């Protein structure tokens, strides 16, 4: 199986018997306003990352992760979106803005772009797809699953970890069940409270194919882009 890979949160690593397994494909399922990017950034500090953005522009993503400037881990951002479609409130809610260039939600060409990017992965690291929603709304379930299978294969071959950022919404993507079925690990993240400048989350790990599920809730805190567990609490 190989040496475990850190999540970037030591207490969480201990709960997972050392962290994530090389080759794991993980789905982070969360609402748009959870600041889940901070959790992804913690993983990006641990190893180099290929970041595939399906909705927001590459420059917007790079701006988000300016906090990683002091990290030795390389970050490559590829924009796999094309065209402009900002006609519904779902997209506005995901991006928080009406200024981002996004792809048509029925453009299967995006799947081709993701597939081609996946084939270029040669070194171990993280591969982030953010968000998966546009891919899950494409017209061809088989083509979408083939992209996920190709990603999983490259993760196993290179000892990498894949992160599928799955945003929840009142209108779930038609292929969300496919995503959760293929994923080796599922993290469910919910906002619980905001107090004293800290954002408090509840994390559950109902699926962990090559390890133990964590069914009890783990309380995560975000403070100045750092994600941690308050070890003084009974978690």
From TrEMBL:
InterPro entries: DUF7125, P-loop_NTPase. Coiled coil: none annotated. It comes from the Archaea. Keywords: ATP-binding, Nucleotide-binding. This is Uncharacterized protein. One of its GO terms (molecular function) is ATP binding.
